[in-house]
Amino acid sequence: MPSSGSSAPPTPWSRASAPEPSTVSTSGFDTLHETNPRLVLCSLTGYGQTGPYTAKPGHELNFLGLSGFFAVPGRLDGIIVRPGVRLGDLAGALHAALALTAALAGNGEGQHIDVSLSESITAWCSLFAWEALGDARTVPNVGAGTGSYEPTDRKVTAVEPSAMMRARRPAEAAPCMAASAEQQPFSDQPIDAARAVGTVHHWPT
Questions:
Q1: What are the start and end residues of each CATH 3.40.50.10540 domain in the chain?
Q2: Are 162 and 178 in contact (CB under 8 A)?
Q3: Which of 200, 47, 181, 21 is nearest to 111 (CA)?
Q4: pTM
Q5: Any catalytic annotation for residue 89?
Q6: Would you call 31 exposed, middle or buried from its count of C-beta atoms within 10 A (0-12, 13-18, 19+)?
Q7: Taking a C-beta distance cutoff of 8 angstroms, is the pair 195, 129 a contact?
Q8: Cα torsion for 26, 204, 20, 27, to the nearest 10°?
Q9: Which residue in 89, 135, 188, 192 is the catalytic one?
Q10: Domain 25-124 class, CATH top level
Q11: Which residues of the chain have pLDDT under 70?
Q12: Are residues 109 and 184 in contact, defined by beta-carbon separation less than 8 angstroms?
């Protein structure tokens, strides 16, 4: 029988009582930025600051499932298993650390960095994204880099804003255009599908 000094039993968990992801509005960051123009703020959430999933609670399995992680065989027998480490958290933390390092090493101008756990693990699975293109024959590859992992069985047009990366593309790689994700040079050309994974660095800050 519990003593009179015993604590009350814990309240059962329910979705209604689960904390919602916290966000900082654009106006809120603008106010902070006015006070300290060098301020760098990083928001690390399950689904990012915008979009239909922003307010949804999430868990490691949700992030992995949405990313397509479980479609990548992890065993020789093809059995799908849950990884023994929290890959979503690790991917998000690494992206956040990299983005913060780049921001702090920049021109001194503050910024609000938005990192999503689900999108971070999606970027890790991007090497296997070509299968999702199906029978698409005309494909722009946004953020193509040096041409790694570009298929040779379809028409690929690479889009890469970095002159250094374009210069490192081998002669046999797909033709590459100097453009950003914001200004695609395909307004009058038919496109079956597009690949753009991990392209945040191609958008103007």
A1: 25-124
A2: no
A3: 200
A4: 0.57
A5: yes
A6: exposed
A7: yes
A8: 0
A9: 89
A10: alpha beta
A11: 1-27, 73, 127-130, 180-184, 187-189, 196-205
A12: no
